[in-house]
Design goal:
The chain has 453 residues and is α+β, with helices and mostly antiparallel strands. It is built from 16 helices and eleven strands. A six-stranded mixed β-sheet has the order 1-2-6-3-5-4, with helices on both faces. Strands 7-11-8-10-9 form a five-stranded mixed β-sheet. Strand 1 and strand 2 form a beta hairpin.
Length: 453
Protein backbone atom coordinates (compact mmCIF):
# COMPACT_ATOMS: atom_id res chain seq x y z
CA UNK A 1 0.00 0.00 0.00
CA UNK A 2 2.82 2.41 0.84
CA UNK A 3 4.41 1.74 -2.57
CA UNK A 4 1.08 2.38 -4.30
CA UNK A 5 0.76 5.68 -2.43
CA UNK A 6 4.25 6.66 -3.52
CA UNK A 7 3.52 5.80 -7.15
CA UNK A 8 0.34 7.86 -7.09
CA UNK A 9 2.18 10.78 -5.53
CA UNK A 10 4.88 10.63 -8.19
CA UNK A 11 2.28 10.59 -10.98
CA UNK A 12 0.44 13.51 -9.38
CA UNK A 13 3.67 15.46 -8.96
CA UNK A 14 4.53 14.99 -12.61
CA UNK A 15 1.35 16.70 -13.75
CA UNK A 16 0.46 19.24 -11.05
CA UNK A 17 1.76 22.67 -11.96
CA UNK A 18 4.31 24.30 -9.66
CA UNK A 19 4.55 28.04 -9.27
CA UNK A 20 5.49 29.97 -12.40
CA UNK A 21 9.16 30.03 -13.31
CA UNK A 22 11.12 33.22 -13.84
CA UNK A 23 14.77 34.03 -14.25
CA UNK A 24 15.17 35.01 -10.59
CA UNK A 25 14.24 31.46 -9.59
CA UNK A 26 16.74 29.82 -11.93
CA UNK A 27 20.22 29.77 -10.47
CA UNK A 28 23.48 28.23 -11.52
CA UNK A 29 24.88 25.75 -9.04
CA UNK A 30 28.51 24.96 -8.34
CA UNK A 31 29.38 21.65 -9.94
CA UNK A 32 32.46 19.56 -10.68
CA UNK A 33 34.73 20.88 -13.42
CA UNK A 34 33.20 20.66 -16.89
CA UNK A 35 29.58 20.44 -15.69
CA UNK A 36 26.99 23.18 -16.15
CA UNK A 37 24.14 23.01 -13.61
CA UNK A 38 20.92 25.02 -13.25
CA UNK A 39 18.28 24.82 -10.55
CA UNK A 40 14.66 25.93 -10.41
CA UNK A 41 13.82 25.56 -6.74
CA UNK A 42 10.19 24.87 -5.88
CA UNK A 43 8.99 23.35 -2.62
CA UNK A 44 5.24 23.17 -3.19
CA UNK A 45 5.40 19.50 -4.18
CA UNK A 46 7.83 16.98 -2.56
CA UNK A 47 9.27 15.89 -5.88
CA UNK A 48 12.50 16.48 -7.84
CA UNK A 49 12.96 16.25 -11.62
CA UNK A 50 16.32 16.08 -13.33
CA UNK A 51 17.41 16.26 -16.97
CA UNK A 52 21.03 15.67 -17.96
CA UNK A 53 22.67 15.90 -21.37
CA UNK A 54 26.04 14.30 -22.01
CA UNK A 55 27.75 14.54 -25.43
CA UNK A 56 27.35 10.86 -26.28
CA UNK A 57 24.75 10.80 -29.04
CA UNK A 58 24.61 8.81 -32.24
CA UNK A 59 26.82 11.31 -34.08
CA UNK A 60 29.72 9.91 -32.04
CA UNK A 61 29.14 6.31 -33.12
CA UNK A 62 32.17 4.65 -34.72
CA UNK A 63 31.78 5.00 -38.47
CA UNK A 64 31.72 1.25 -38.97
CA UNK A 65 29.46 0.53 -35.97
CA UNK A 66 26.42 2.80 -35.94
CA UNK A 67 24.11 1.98 -33.07
CA UNK A 68 26.71 1.73 -30.28
CA UNK A 69 25.49 4.88 -28.50
CA UNK A 70 21.90 3.68 -28.64
CA UNK A 71 22.75 0.22 -27.29
CA UNK A 72 24.79 1.75 -24.50
CA UNK A 73 21.95 4.03 -23.41
CA UNK A 74 19.48 1.13 -23.47
CA UNK A 75 21.76 -0.81 -21.12
CA UNK A 76 22.49 1.85 -18.53
CA UNK A 77 19.51 0.86 -16.39
CA UNK A 78 20.05 -2.85 -16.98
CA UNK A 79 22.34 -3.33 -14.01
CA UNK A 80 25.17 -1.37 -12.41
CA UNK A 81 27.77 -1.99 -9.74
CA UNK A 82 26.77 -4.95 -7.56
CA UNK A 83 23.15 -4.86 -8.83
CA UNK A 84 22.23 -7.02 -11.79
CA UNK A 85 19.42 -5.95 -14.12
CA UNK A 86 16.65 -7.39 -11.96
CA UNK A 87 18.04 -5.99 -8.73
CA UNK A 88 18.58 -2.56 -10.27
CA UNK A 89 15.02 -2.38 -11.61
CA UNK A 90 13.65 -3.61 -8.30
CA UNK A 91 15.48 -0.83 -6.46
CA UNK A 92 13.95 1.75 -8.80
CA UNK A 93 10.49 0.27 -8.32
CA UNK A 94 10.80 0.01 -4.55
CA UNK A 95 11.47 3.72 -4.23
CA UNK A 96 9.15 4.83 -7.07
CA UNK A 97 12.09 6.28 -8.98
CA UNK A 98 11.83 6.96 -12.69
CA UNK A 99 15.23 6.81 -14.37
CA UNK A 100 15.50 6.88 -18.15
CA UNK A 101 18.23 7.08 -20.78
CA UNK A 102 17.73 8.12 -24.39
CA UNK A 103 20.05 8.80 -27.30
CA UNK A 104 19.68 11.80 -29.56
CA UNK A 105 21.93 12.95 -32.37
CA UNK A 106 24.34 14.92 -30.21
CA UNK A 107 23.53 13.93 -26.65
CA UNK A 108 22.71 11.10 -24.31
CA UNK A 109 19.79 12.45 -22.26
CA UNK A 110 19.21 11.16 -18.74
CA UNK A 111 15.93 11.87 -16.96
CA UNK A 112 15.18 11.28 -13.29
CA UNK A 113 12.00 11.84 -11.27
CA UNK A 114 11.85 11.08 -7.58
CA UNK A 115 10.05 11.95 -4.39
CA UNK A 116 12.17 14.18 -2.18
CA UNK A 117 12.29 11.54 0.56
CA UNK A 118 13.90 9.11 -1.91
CA UNK A 119 16.37 11.55 -3.45
CA UNK A 120 19.41 9.97 -1.78
CA UNK A 121 18.63 6.59 -3.32
CA UNK A 122 17.64 8.12 -6.68
CA UNK A 123 20.90 10.01 -7.13
CA UNK A 124 22.87 7.01 -5.86
CA UNK A 125 21.33 4.74 -8.48
CA UNK A 126 21.81 7.29 -11.25
CA UNK A 127 25.45 7.74 -10.26
CA UNK A 128 25.92 3.97 -10.20
CA UNK A 129 24.46 3.64 -13.69
CA UNK A 130 26.82 6.28 -15.07
CA UNK A 131 29.93 5.17 -13.19
CA UNK A 132 29.65 1.39 -13.14
CA UNK A 133 27.30 0.03 -15.81
CA UNK A 134 27.59 -3.74 -15.98
CA UNK A 135 26.84 -4.46 -19.64
CA UNK A 136 26.13 -8.09 -18.78
CA UNK A 137 25.74 -10.64 -21.56
CA UNK A 138 22.03 -11.41 -21.08
CA UNK A 139 20.84 -7.78 -21.20
CA UNK A 140 23.10 -7.10 -24.19
CA UNK A 141 21.55 -9.93 -26.16
CA UNK A 142 18.05 -8.89 -25.11
CA UNK A 143 18.64 -5.29 -26.19
CA UNK A 144 20.26 -6.50 -29.40
CA UNK A 145 17.19 -8.60 -30.21
CA UNK A 146 14.88 -5.68 -29.44
CA UNK A 147 16.94 -3.37 -31.63
CA UNK A 148 16.93 -5.80 -34.54
CA UNK A 149 13.17 -6.23 -34.19
CA UNK A 150 12.81 -2.45 -34.26
CA UNK A 151 14.92 -2.20 -37.39
CA UNK A 152 12.71 -4.81 -39.02
CA UNK A 153 9.62 -2.76 -38.16
CA UNK A 154 11.32 0.38 -39.49
CA UNK A 155 11.60 -1.28 -42.90
CA UNK A 156 7.81 -1.37 -43.07
CA UNK A 157 7.13 2.19 -41.91
CA UNK A 158 7.25 4.73 -44.77
CA UNK A 159 7.70 7.72 -42.45
CA UNK A 160 10.76 6.15 -40.82
CA UNK A 161 12.15 5.06 -44.17
CA UNK A 162 11.74 8.57 -45.54
CA UNK A 163 13.38 10.16 -42.48
CA UNK A 164 16.41 7.86 -42.61
CA UNK A 165 16.83 8.30 -46.36
CA UNK A 166 16.48 12.07 -46.03
CA UNK A 167 19.31 12.23 -43.48
CA UNK A 168 21.53 10.30 -45.87
CA UNK A 169 20.51 12.43 -48.84
CA UNK A 170 21.12 15.66 -46.95
CA UNK A 171 24.16 14.87 -44.79
CA UNK A 172 25.88 12.26 -46.97
CA UNK A 173 28.79 10.72 -45.10
CA UNK A 174 28.67 13.20 -42.21
CA UNK A 175 27.99 11.67 -38.75
CA UNK A 176 24.58 13.35 -38.69
CA UNK A 177 23.52 10.89 -41.37
CA UNK A 178 23.99 7.98 -38.97
CA UNK A 179 20.94 5.91 -38.22
CA UNK A 180 20.93 6.12 -34.44
CA UNK A 181 19.55 2.60 -34.15
CA UNK A 182 22.31 1.19 -36.35
CA UNK A 183 21.99 -1.30 -39.17
CA UNK A 184 21.29 -5.04 -39.14
CA UNK A 185 24.98 -5.74 -39.72
CA UNK A 186 26.32 -3.24 -37.19
CA UNK A 187 23.90 -4.20 -34.41
CA UNK A 188 24.73 -7.86 -34.93
CA UNK A 189 28.44 -7.07 -34.70
CA UNK A 190 28.49 -4.75 -31.65
CA UNK A 191 30.26 -6.44 -28.74
CA UNK A 192 30.34 -5.78 -25.02
CA UNK A 193 33.86 -4.45 -25.50
CA UNK A 194 32.61 -1.95 -28.09
CA UNK A 195 29.94 -0.70 -25.69
CA UNK A 196 32.35 -0.45 -22.76
CA UNK A 197 34.88 1.43 -24.89
CA UNK A 198 32.25 3.93 -25.98
CA UNK A 199 31.09 4.43 -22.38
CA UNK A 200 34.64 4.94 -21.13
CA UNK A 201 35.37 7.64 -23.71
CA UNK A 202 32.01 9.43 -23.72
CA UNK A 203 30.54 9.21 -20.21
CA UNK A 204 32.73 12.09 -19.06
CA UNK A 205 32.18 15.39 -17.29
CA UNK A 206 33.28 17.71 -20.07
CA UNK A 207 30.26 19.29 -21.72
CA UNK A 208 27.71 17.70 -19.37
CA UNK A 209 24.66 19.85 -18.67
CA UNK A 210 22.18 19.26 -15.87
CA UNK A 211 18.91 21.02 -15.07
CA UNK A 212 17.00 20.31 -11.87
CA UNK A 213 13.56 21.49 -10.81
CA UNK A 214 11.66 20.90 -7.61
CA UNK A 215 11.97 20.37 -3.90
CA UNK A 216 15.72 20.79 -3.42
CA UNK A 217 18.07 23.65 -2.59
CA UNK A 218 21.40 24.54 -4.15
CA UNK A 219 23.42 23.19 -1.23
CA UNK A 220 21.91 19.72 -1.35
CA UNK A 221 22.03 19.65 -5.14
CA UNK A 222 25.73 20.47 -4.97
CA UNK A 223 26.27 17.39 -2.83
CA UNK A 224 24.43 15.21 -5.33
CA UNK A 225 26.32 16.73 -8.27
CA UNK A 226 29.60 15.79 -6.63
CA UNK A 227 28.27 12.27 -6.07
CA UNK A 228 27.16 11.87 -9.71
CA UNK A 229 29.87 13.71 -11.61
CA UNK A 230 32.84 13.81 -9.24
CA UNK A 231 34.03 10.26 -10.00
CA UNK A 232 33.54 10.65 -13.77
CA UNK A 233 36.60 11.38 -15.93
CA UNK A 234 37.03 15.10 -16.58
CA UNK A 235 37.42 14.47 -20.30
CA UNK A 236 35.90 16.56 -23.05
CA UNK A 237 33.95 15.42 -26.09
CA UNK A 238 34.11 18.07 -28.81
CA UNK A 239 31.12 18.71 -31.08
CA UNK A 240 31.27 16.85 -34.37
CA UNK A 241 32.71 18.95 -37.17
CA UNK A 242 30.20 21.09 -39.04
CA UNK A 243 29.13 19.65 -42.39
CA UNK A 244 31.09 21.17 -45.26
CA UNK A 245 28.50 20.30 -47.90
CA UNK A 246 24.88 19.27 -48.09
CA UNK A 247 22.97 17.11 -50.51
CA UNK A 248 21.98 18.57 -53.84
CA UNK A 249 18.39 19.83 -54.07
CA UNK A 250 16.02 17.41 -55.74
CA UNK A 251 13.62 14.56 -55.13
CA UNK A 252 14.41 10.93 -54.32
CA UNK A 253 11.64 8.36 -54.59
CA UNK A 254 11.85 5.08 -52.70
CA UNK A 255 9.46 2.72 -54.46
CA UNK A 256 6.95 1.08 -52.12
CA UNK A 257 3.56 -0.35 -52.96
CA UNK A 258 1.62 1.56 -50.30
CA UNK A 259 -1.53 3.68 -50.52
CA UNK A 260 -0.09 6.78 -48.81
CA UNK A 261 3.55 7.71 -49.46
CA UNK A 262 5.38 9.64 -46.74
CA UNK A 263 7.45 12.71 -47.57
CA UNK A 264 10.28 14.43 -45.75
CA UNK A 265 11.52 17.74 -47.14
CA UNK A 266 14.02 20.23 -45.81
CA UNK A 267 16.78 22.73 -46.34
CA UNK A 268 19.39 24.72 -44.45
CA UNK A 269 18.25 26.89 -41.53
CA UNK A 270 19.81 29.36 -39.08
CA UNK A 271 21.94 28.14 -36.21
CA UNK A 272 20.58 28.71 -32.71
CA UNK A 273 23.18 31.40 -32.00
CA UNK A 274 22.28 33.32 -35.17
CA UNK A 275 20.27 36.55 -34.84
CA UNK A 276 18.04 35.04 -37.54
CA UNK A 277 16.91 32.15 -35.35
CA UNK A 278 14.12 33.80 -33.34
CA UNK A 279 12.69 35.64 -36.38
CA UNK A 280 12.79 32.38 -38.36
CA UNK A 281 11.09 30.58 -35.47
CA UNK A 282 8.28 33.12 -35.68
CA UNK A 283 8.18 32.94 -39.48
CA UNK A 284 8.03 29.16 -39.38
CA UNK A 285 5.02 29.24 -37.05
CA UNK A 286 3.20 31.20 -39.75
CA UNK A 287 4.41 29.03 -42.61
CA UNK A 288 4.17 25.48 -41.31
CA UNK A 289 4.65 25.25 -37.56
CA UNK A 290 1.36 26.59 -36.28
CA UNK A 291 -0.92 23.62 -36.87
CA UNK A 292 -4.26 24.75 -38.24
CA UNK A 293 -3.03 28.35 -38.01
CA UNK A 294 -0.25 27.74 -40.54
CA UNK A 295 -0.37 28.52 -44.23
CA UNK A 296 0.58 24.99 -45.25
CA UNK A 297 -2.29 23.44 -43.32
CA UNK A 298 -4.65 25.99 -44.84
CA UNK A 299 -3.47 25.47 -48.40
CA UNK A 300 -2.68 21.75 -48.44
CA UNK A 301 -5.33 20.37 -46.10
CA UNK A 302 -8.13 22.86 -45.58
CA UNK A 303 -8.49 24.19 -49.10
CA UNK A 304 -7.55 21.06 -51.05
CA UNK A 305 -7.95 18.11 -48.69
CA UNK A 306 -4.64 16.59 -49.80
CA UNK A 307 -3.55 15.37 -46.37
CA UNK A 308 -4.55 15.00 -42.75
CA UNK A 309 -1.56 17.05 -41.69
CA UNK A 310 1.53 18.88 -42.87
CA UNK A 311 4.08 20.73 -40.77
CA UNK A 312 7.54 22.24 -40.70
CA UNK A 313 9.93 22.87 -37.83
CA UNK A 314 13.38 24.15 -36.98
CA UNK A 315 16.03 21.67 -35.86
CA UNK A 316 19.12 23.04 -34.15
CA UNK A 317 21.87 20.47 -33.84
CA UNK A 318 25.23 21.34 -32.30
CA UNK A 319 26.89 21.68 -35.71
CA UNK A 320 24.05 22.18 -38.19
CA UNK A 321 20.57 23.66 -38.42
CA UNK A 322 17.60 22.68 -40.56
CA UNK A 323 14.12 23.67 -41.55
CA UNK A 324 12.42 20.33 -42.09
CA UNK A 325 8.88 19.33 -42.91
CA UNK A 326 6.76 16.24 -43.45
CA UNK A 327 3.53 15.28 -45.17
CA UNK A 328 1.73 12.06 -46.05
CA UNK A 329 -0.83 11.85 -48.82
CA UNK A 330 -2.67 9.41 -51.05
CA UNK A 331 -0.41 8.23 -53.87
CA UNK A 332 -2.32 10.03 -56.62
CA UNK A 333 -2.17 13.28 -54.67
CA UNK A 334 1.25 13.32 -53.05
CA UNK A 335 2.89 15.10 -55.98
CA UNK A 336 0.13 17.70 -55.91
CA UNK A 337 0.68 18.19 -52.19
CA UNK A 338 4.36 18.83 -52.86
CA UNK A 339 3.66 21.24 -55.68
CA UNK A 340 1.28 23.22 -53.48
CA UNK A 341 3.91 23.25 -50.72
CA UNK A 342 6.55 24.59 -53.09
CA UNK A 343 4.18 27.21 -54.50
CA UNK A 344 3.26 28.35 -51.00
CA UNK A 345 6.94 28.53 -50.06
CA UNK A 346 7.57 30.72 -53.10
CA UNK A 347 4.67 33.00 -52.16
CA UNK A 348 5.88 33.10 -48.54
CA UNK A 349 9.36 34.20 -49.66
CA UNK A 350 8.25 36.74 -52.26
CA UNK A 351 5.14 38.27 -50.71
CA UNK A 352 5.99 37.91 -47.04
CA UNK A 353 3.51 37.83 -44.17
CA UNK A 354 0.87 40.26 -42.97
CA UNK A 355 0.80 42.33 -39.81
CA UNK A 356 -2.14 40.24 -38.59
CA UNK A 357 -0.29 36.94 -39.16
CA UNK A 358 2.70 38.27 -37.25
CA UNK A 359 0.57 39.55 -34.39
CA UNK A 360 -1.28 36.24 -34.12
CA UNK A 361 1.99 34.30 -34.15
CA UNK A 362 3.45 36.43 -31.37
CA UNK A 363 0.29 36.06 -29.28
CA UNK A 364 0.36 32.28 -29.53
CA UNK A 365 4.12 31.80 -29.11
CA UNK A 366 4.32 34.03 -26.04
CA UNK A 367 1.07 32.84 -24.51
CA UNK A 368 1.80 29.14 -24.90
CA UNK A 369 5.32 29.34 -23.46
CA UNK A 370 4.28 29.02 -19.79
CA UNK A 371 2.33 25.86 -20.65
CA UNK A 372 5.66 24.18 -21.33
CA UNK A 373 6.76 25.03 -17.80
CA UNK A 374 3.80 23.77 -15.80
CA UNK A 375 5.42 20.82 -14.04
CA UNK A 376 8.81 20.08 -12.56
CA UNK A 377 9.57 17.50 -15.25
CA UNK A 378 8.69 19.96 -18.03
CA UNK A 379 10.78 22.69 -16.40
CA UNK A 380 13.84 20.43 -16.08
CA UNK A 381 13.47 19.25 -19.67
CA UNK A 382 13.00 22.76 -21.05
CA UNK A 383 15.93 24.18 -19.10
CA UNK A 384 18.15 21.34 -20.24
CA UNK A 385 17.11 22.07 -23.83
CA UNK A 386 18.11 25.71 -23.37
CA UNK A 387 21.46 24.59 -21.98
CA UNK A 388 22.06 22.37 -25.00
CA UNK A 389 21.27 25.33 -27.25
CA UNK A 390 24.01 27.36 -25.56
CA UNK A 391 21.60 29.76 -23.84
CA UNK A 392 21.82 31.20 -20.35
CA UNK A 393 19.29 30.94 -17.49
CA UNK A 394 18.12 34.49 -18.22
CA UNK A 395 16.63 33.25 -21.49
CA UNK A 396 13.48 32.13 -19.66
CA UNK A 397 12.58 35.73 -18.80
CA UNK A 398 13.92 37.21 -22.04
CA UNK A 399 12.42 34.75 -24.49
CA UNK A 400 8.99 36.37 -24.89
CA UNK A 401 10.45 39.85 -25.24
CA UNK A 402 12.73 38.55 -28.00
CA UNK A 403 9.68 37.27 -29.86
CA UNK A 404 7.75 40.49 -29.29
CA UNK A 405 10.69 42.45 -30.72
CA UNK A 406 10.56 40.64 -34.08
CA UNK A 407 9.48 43.09 -36.77
CA UNK A 408 7.51 42.49 -39.93
CA UNK A 409 10.52 43.60 -41.93
CA UNK A 410 12.76 41.02 -40.23
CA UNK A 411 10.25 38.16 -40.62
CA UNK A 412 9.97 38.88 -44.32
CA UNK A 413 13.75 39.08 -44.60
CA UNK A 414 14.25 35.60 -43.14
CA UNK A 415 11.37 34.28 -45.28
CA UNK A 416 13.28 35.42 -48.37
CA UNK A 417 16.57 34.06 -47.02
CA UNK A 418 15.56 30.58 -45.87
CA UNK A 419 12.34 29.56 -47.65
CA UNK A 420 13.52 28.82 -51.18
CA UNK A 421 11.78 25.78 -52.72
CA UNK A 422 14.61 25.41 -55.25
CA UNK A 423 16.88 24.40 -52.34
CA UNK A 424 14.62 21.65 -51.00
CA UNK A 425 15.95 18.13 -50.53
CA UNK A 426 12.92 15.84 -50.78
CA UNK A 427 12.49 12.13 -50.12
CA UNK A 428 9.28 10.25 -50.89
CA UNK A 429 8.86 6.78 -49.41
CA UNK A 430 6.16 5.23 -51.54
CA UNK A 431 5.48 5.22 -55.26
CA UNK A 432 3.45 8.23 -56.42
CA UNK A 433 0.87 7.73 -59.14
CA UNK A 434 0.11 10.25 -61.88
CA UNK A 435 -2.35 12.85 -60.71
CA UNK A 436 -4.67 12.14 -63.61
CA UNK A 437 -5.35 8.70 -62.11
CA UNK A 438 -6.98 10.31 -59.07
CA UNK A 439 -10.65 9.40 -58.46
CA UNK A 440 -13.03 11.77 -60.19
CA UNK A 441 -15.29 12.76 -57.30
CA UNK A 442 -17.51 15.80 -57.08
CA UNK A 443 -15.57 17.45 -54.28
CA UNK A 444 -12.20 16.80 -55.85
CA UNK A 445 -11.02 15.51 -52.48
CA UNK A 446 -9.24 12.22 -51.80
CA UNK A 447 -11.20 9.67 -49.82
CA UNK A 448 -7.98 9.19 -47.82
CA UNK A 449 -8.01 12.76 -46.50
CA UNK A 450 -10.61 15.01 -44.88
CA UNK A 451 -12.53 17.50 -46.98
CA UNK A 452 -12.12 21.19 -46.29
CA UNK A 453 -14.94 22.49 -44.06
Amino acid sequence: MRRLFRDLLVITALFVAPLSVNAAEIVTVDAPEGVEAWLSEEHTIPMIAVSIAIPAGSAYDPTDLPGVASMMSSLLNEGAGDLDDNAFKEALETYAIRLGFGTGTDYLVVTLSTLTENADEAFRLMALALHAPRFDAEPIERVRAQTLAGLQQDQEDPSTIAAKAWATAYFGTHPYAHDGSGTFDSVAAISAADIRSFAETHLVRGGAKIAVAGDIDAGQLGVYLEQVFGPMPVGNVEPVAAPTAFGAPGTEVIDMAIPQPAVIFGLDGPMRASPDFIPTYVANYIFGGGGFSSRLMDEVREKRGLTYGISTGLQDLRSAALIQGSVQSERTRVQTALEVTKAEMTRFATEGVTEMELADAKTYLTGSFPLGLDSNSKIAGALNGFQRAGLGPEYVSERNSLIEAVTLEKVNEVARTYYNPDELVIVIAGTPAPAEEAPDDDAGVSQEAPAAP
